[in-house]
Amino acid sequence: MSNHVDLTIIAIAVAVMAMTAVVIIVLLARVLLHLMQLEKILREEVRTLSTDVRDVLHNVKRASEHLSQSMGQITRTASWLTRAVGLLVGFARAKRLSERPSPLAVPGPSWWMTGLRWLWGAYRQRRSQRALTKSGPPSPME
After folding, report:
1. Distance, CA of 86 to CA of 88 (rounded, Å)
2. Residues 104, 108, 110, 116: is their CA dihedral positive or negative?
3. Which H helix or E strand runs over 119?
4. DSSP string of 13-27?
5. CA 127 to CA 118: how far, in whole Å?
6. How many angstroms separate the CA atoms of 46 and 53, rounded?
């Protein structure tokens, strides 16, 4: 082959390589444009999501404040109800005790019968207290 043919082949190869480089550069430019559009879309989505998360956190904070206020009101109401029930129970006991005749007002048989009655009551009370201490407090499973 002559120099002329060699130079032609080299020129054609360089032209093909130049055209391939141009096509690759055009393709890379298109990919770059698509990536830039994707970045813009993602940036907007992240901004939207951050706004949504901020709103959700604000709603959770308000809900927890409302919940704590409600729990405070329930606690105060339960405290007042406990006091009211205690007061009613106290009144009921006082009424029941006032309706019962006093053991000292009723004339008893003789002094030794009254003493035996007191001893028997003390013995029963002591026996019931021992039974309670032996059994211990009731378990929560009962």
Report:
1. 5
2. negative
3. helix 111-135
4. HHHHHHHHHHHHHHH
5. 14
6. 10
Please, are residues 114 and 108 in contact by the beta-carbon 8 Å criterion? yes
d(C-alpha 24, C-alpha 105), whole Å: 119
pLDDT tens figures, 1-22: 688 899 999 999 999 999 999 9
Confidence (pTM): 0.43
Task: Give the separation between CA 111 and CA 29, rounded to whole angstroms.
Answer: 120
> Residue 37's pLDDT is what?
97
C-alpha span between 72 and 79 (Å, rounded):
11
| Integer angstrom CA distances of residue 85 from 71, 97, 132 | 21, 18, 26
Residue tagged 């901004």 (tokens): 47
